[in-house]
Amino acid sequence: MTDAEELEICNLHRAIYKNDWSAAKASIDRLPRILDVDFAASTGETPLHVAVKFGHVGIVEELVRLVSAEYLEIYDTYGHTPLTIAASHSGVIPIVLCLVNKNRKALVMPVKGTSWAIPAQVAFRTGLKEVGSYLYNVTPLEAFKPEKVLVGPVFLMSCFVTGGLGNMTSTQLCHQYVSFSFLHPFLTLIKNIHVPTGTGGLRHRLISRIYDFSGMKEIRKMKLQHAQTAEILNLVCQNVIVLNEEKKNIIAGALKAAAVVGNVEFWLQVMKANPQLISLVTFGTPYSPLFFNAVANRNAEIFNLLRGFRFNNVVAAWIDEEKNSLLHMAASLAPASYLNSISGAALQMQRELQWFKAVEKMVEPGYRYFINRELLNPLDFFKKNHKDLRDKGEKWMKETASSCSVVGALIVTIMFAAALTVPGGNNQNSGYPMFMEKRLFKVFLISDALSLFSSTTSVLTFLGILTSRYAEDDFLYSLPRKLIIGLSTLFLSIATMMIAFSATIMIMWQSKPSHLWALLPVAMLAGVPVTLFVLLQFPLLVEVISSTYGQGIFKKGEKWP
Known about the structure:
The chain has helices spanning about 5-15, 20-30, 35-40, 45-55, 55-65, 80-90, 95-100, 120-125, 130-140, 150-160, 170-190, 200-215, 215-240, 245-260, 265-275, 290-295, 300-305, 310-315, 325-330, 335-340, 345-360, 380-385, 385-420, 440-465, 480-510, 520-535, 540-550. With about 550 residues, the protein is mostly helical. It starts with a helix and ends in a 12-residue tail after the last helix.
């Protein structure tokens, strides 16, 4: 290459960088050799590489018109084709479409020096999921076959890490398929409606709008993606029949990524494809921490898988480099992202205790006293790591109890006063209430008594919370049980107080029929406080009950392999 040619190439690249096609075309006219495949390959970076890198759609389209399909197979100095540059740098869909339409062979050309970094994988690895989804859909399935060695496993691992197609679980697919099945007969009926001649376009637009509004297009797309992912997973499973050390590292990485997102289906299918992979998570290999990571990250799906694992006793007996057992991992503090998904520090503390107890049941009793490098057994390790969370849980519980006890005490005062000053007053001769025989008065008496007794119970329960012990174990059942009783009785007292109020208003207005029209608005307004309490506090009550007495996140796993 002459000095003049090098200078012209520099001018061409500068023009492309500035998105000046006129100047770029003039340079090409002065140096036509740049469009020759062999000459362009020797320059280290073609004009097409430059245009793709900076996302200049117009220049890319012009260059693609001028070059042959083989031009798109040229590697730059770093081993990238223009398509892998588009998949990792620009992320511009029109550029990707233009390149793919020119030469589909580039879809299966990996980054030089690798056998697996095809454009679809590169796009997902760099976080360009929209580009990755398109490239995935147009890449031939043959690219993921076993003879391609590591393409399938690395591609799926990239999907797991960046939240791509591999995160679709069978449960999600089931929900989507049910929705699709429900809506399908409705759309079939619409398609069969007879429309007069000349209005076919209107019918087509109507069906299209309903199809889009119902979400069926997205469901259908996700269903197709899941089916394609399943095909690739099957090919991956064929690829893991024969393992070398490089494959083991790749599969271990994929299993770890699957554990992070809780993809049990991937674990089971890969393990069934090659039972030798079971040694990756057992028998003291360097990959044994895979289940440890699942416990440390509080991944219930993978932990339930471990509980059904035939060799879970081997995993439970494994010790890491810091002398931590599986129970020590459960005693560590959960990631903030996991704790933030749980309402209230007290419930977070409860969930941490539930994890500790669940793992404790699985390990041998002797491991409860096993000491790590910090000379702490699991229980002491738990107390050390959860000291701040325990303090926050105590503060949260006391603040909640204080707030609710104020409301309960107010209701006690109101209901006690209402019991002494009954509506209509008392008969001066007998001393009995004037409306003693009326049904609404009986409703008032019963509601007032229930509200008084339940609010009193609520206040006493919340006072009990304020004076309770706040040891770690108390967050498991004792404190949540008191909170359930307090919130339940407080809710009952508010509801019955509104009933008593409504009954009193109705008694007063019964003597004036002309005012009966106002009963409905009064009844509706009386329901406002109850509704507000339900919206603001009832979800907390349901969550506490579910967390304390529900089935929970721990389910007995099925035996495998």
